């Protein structure tokens, strides 16, 4: 196959030239202590904070964002979730997940660095919304390092907030799912990739969520970490708008997850309205093979096209209520989004559907939605930038770059 380097793909990349032809560049030092000061982007009238600093060469950054008000204050407070933040009941209503259960299937979450009070903060979230407890003592919650050991890495505030969003999102979408959190030692793609491989070998894991990304890269270099047939591996598309590609979402082995704005729509049949979130990543990989399952959808990309499916990501419109750390010791309530919200939601829906293991060891879960696209909510409005062809950055009927085939309408599409 002739792999085309697209000039448009360079616009908006997370880190320019972070990887050259998919080969790791010299390693950069991971951020020290806590994450660098967050960046504020006031796009489309929806201010939000970028939780993690941009990645260095060969690294990834988390794709979480926190909603803030007009003067830069974080939405929320210590006492209660922010008014307007998405609750578990609302999330399950929006995606027609009421009455579904996983039967105790396990969703694995891969992130970087440590979060000593993860179990405490998760307990507060689940208690607030009347969800059953999920503890390490009961076996519902497991927290390990990238190799599956108990020696956990150092604390990092930004990545700890990312983990809070991830475990709360899984809890909201799939209250009876077991949760495994794997904390990589660094943000090197080799480190988080090792955690993915560890997760794939753990008993009961049916889905692995990766709420992070870096520059577009080659499966020839990194695909060995994400090549896990028989298990749903989801990856966030990134929060930089139309950008051309973000790895591992551009891997041919994963389900690439884009983002939407989700708002109540009383009086409509669904009760919710959904459009493209302007921040979601999308684009055409310069390196990786296209999905055979997507051939009939006309993506316009000779290589791997982002995205396959999507879910709520707009911090202001569909941002999830999260009980998150404000320091190594303290916690509060906030409203979080970014495609980091969408990836664990989709991983949870795969777990609820329960088809990944039954499809066999030779089946990649990213093919399943293409076989059942009629069972998804087709998002048909909104854009995340300017591009050619337009469907890479503008929603319309059927497949489009920002939202893929659409968002969950129950579990049949997964």
Automatic annotation (TrEMBL):
<feature type="signal peptide">
    <location>
        <begin position="1"/>
        <end position="28"/>
    </location>
</feature>
<dbReference type="GO" id="GO:0006508">
    <property type="term" value="P:proteolysis"/>
</dbReference>
<dbReference type="InterPro" id="IPR050819">
    <property type="entry name" value="Tripeptidyl-peptidase_I"/>
</dbReference>
<keyword id="KW-0732">Signal</keyword>
<dbReference type="InterPro" id="IPR036852">
    <property type="entry name" value="Peptidase_S8/S53_dom_sf"/>
</dbReference>
<protein>
    <submittedName>
        <fullName>Peptidase S8</fullName>
    </submittedName>
</protein>
<feature type="domain" description="Peptidase S53">
    <location>
        <begin position="85"/>
        <end position="414"/>
    </location>
</feature>
<dbReference type="GO" id="GO:0004252">
    <property type="term" value="F:serine-type endopeptidase activity"/>
</dbReference>
<dbReference type="InterPro" id="IPR030400">
    <property type="entry name" value="Sedolisin_dom"/>
</dbReference>
<dbReference type="GO" id="GO:0008240">
    <property type="term" value="F:tripeptidyl-peptidase activity"/>
</dbReference>
């Amino acid at each position: 196959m002739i792999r085309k380097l697209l000039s448009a793909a360079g616009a908006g990349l997370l880190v320019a030239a972070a990887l050259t032809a998919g080969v790791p560049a010299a390693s950069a030092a991971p951020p020290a202590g806590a994450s660098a000061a967050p960046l504020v982007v006031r796009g489309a009238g929806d201010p939000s904070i970028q939780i993690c600093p941009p990645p260095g060469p060969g690294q990834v950054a988390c794709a979480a964002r926190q909603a803030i008000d007009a003067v830069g204050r974080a939405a929320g407070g210590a006492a209660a979730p922010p008014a307007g933040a998405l609750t578990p009941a609302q999330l399950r209503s929006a995606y027609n997940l009421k009455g579904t259960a996983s039967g105790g299937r396990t969703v694995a979450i891969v992130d970087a660095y440590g979060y000593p009070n993860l179990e405490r903060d998760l307990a507060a979230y689940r208690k607030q919304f009347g969800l059953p407890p999920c503890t390490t003592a009961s076996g519902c919650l497991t927290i390990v390092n990238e190799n599956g050991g108990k020696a956990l890495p150092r604390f990092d505030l930004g990545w700890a907030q990312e983990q809070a969003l991830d475990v709360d999102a899984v809890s909201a979408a799939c209250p009876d799912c077991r949760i495994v959190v794997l904390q990589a030692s660094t943000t090197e793609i080799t480190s988080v990739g090792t955690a993915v491989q560890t997760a794939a070998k753990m008993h009961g894991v049916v889905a692995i969520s990766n709420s992070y990304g870096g520059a577009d890269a080659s499966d020839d270099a990194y695909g060995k970490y994400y090549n896990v047939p028989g298990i749903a591996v989801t990856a966030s598309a990134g929060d930089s708008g139309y950008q051309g590609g973000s790895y591992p979402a551009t891997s041919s082995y994963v389900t690439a997850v884009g983002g939407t704005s989700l708002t109540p729509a009383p009086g409509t049949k669904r009760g919710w309205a959904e459009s493209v979130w302007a921040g979601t990543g999308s684009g055409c990989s310069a390196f990786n093979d296209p999905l055979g399952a997507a051939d009939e959808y006309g993506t316009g990309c000779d290589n791997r096209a982002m995205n396959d499916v999507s879910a709520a990501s707009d911090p202001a419109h569909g941002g999830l209520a999260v009980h998150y750390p404000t320091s190594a010791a303290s916690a509060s309530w906030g409203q979080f989004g970014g495609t980091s919200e969408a990836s664990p939601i989709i991983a949870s829906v795969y777990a609820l559907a329960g088809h990944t293991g039954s499809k066999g060891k030779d089946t990649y879960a990213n093919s399943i939605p293409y076989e059942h696209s009629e069972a998804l909510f087709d998002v048909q409005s909104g854009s995340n930038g300017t591009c050619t062809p337009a469907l890479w950055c503008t929603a319309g009927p059927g497949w489009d770059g920002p939202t893929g085939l659409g968002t969950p309408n129950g579990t049949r599409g997964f």
